[in-house]
Amino acid sequence: LASEIGRDNVITTAASVMRWSERGFWQQQESRAVRQWVQGYLSDNGADVRKSVVDSVTDLLLTETYQPELEFNQGPAECVNCPNGELMLSADGWKLEPHNREHYRTTQVPVKFDPNATAPRFQQFLAEVFKGDDDVEQKVQALLEAIGYSLMAHCNYELFVILVGGGANGKSVLLAVLEALAGSANVAGVQPSRFDNPFQRAHLHLKLVNIVTEIKQGEKMDDASLKGIVSGEPATVEHKFRNPFEMRPFSTCWFGTNHMPHTRDFSDGLFR
After folding, report:
1. What pairing do the DSSP bridges indicate for beta strands 187-188 and 209-212?
2. Of 3, 31, 71, 89, which shows the fewest CB atoms inside 10 Å?
3. Are 142 and 53 in a shared domain?
4. pTM for the complete prediction?
5. pLDDT at 1 over 70
C-alpha cells in the first residue's frame, strides 16, 4: 500500500498523517480517510476485508511511514502557497516559484496568484471604513500587511489583530474576506478565553488564521496562552480520544469586538 501511494508521499507524525497532494502541499488526513485507503487496497487485491485486518494493516502502514523528527514547513518562511505555485517574498519583491515537495508546506490558499489582478471594490470598502480619518493610508497599509502576514505559515513578527468598533462598521465583512483568502480549511475559531484548554488549542494546529468574529463584553483573554500562540511557542495539546502531541502554532489571531477585551497583562511584552 505504501508503495502504491508512494513511500515518499505519506508521512506519519505524533500529531497526524500527512499525504503529499499534487496540488502542491502536504494535506492532513483524517483517521477515517487512512482506513479508507487500506480498505480499498485490500478490496482491490482480493483480500479479506474485516475490521481486524483493516486495523492491523492500518497500524503497519502508520508504523512504516512514521517520521517523528521530520519538521514541516521547512521552505522559505516568507511565502504564500497558492494553487499555481509558491509566491515568495525577497529583497527583489514577489516571485512565483514552482511547488516543492521538500518544502513540506502544510497549507495552501484557494486563490491563484495573478500579478495583474485588481480589487477596486475592496479598496472602496476600506476607504469607506476609514472615511474621515487623518491617517487613512497608514491604516489601510497596516491592514493589508496584516492580511498578507496571516497567509504565511509562520509567526516571526508576533502579531495579532483586534478590530474594535460598533455594529455595521465593516468588521464582519473584513473577516469574511480574510477567511475567503485563507480558505475555510485553514481557519480555526477558538475564543481567546479558551486558549488554556488543550483540546480547544489543538484546533489551531496547521491553521493559518484563528478568526473570532465577536468577543463577549467583559470576557477576559488568556494572556499567557495568547502570547505563546502569537510567538509560536511549543505547547502540548490533544484531540479527544487521541494521544497528546507538541504543537508549534503559526495561526495569526483576528478578533472582532464592540468593546476592548479585558486583560490582566499590561506588560510591554503584550502591547509591543
Report:
1. parallel
2. 3
3. no
4. 0.91
5. yes
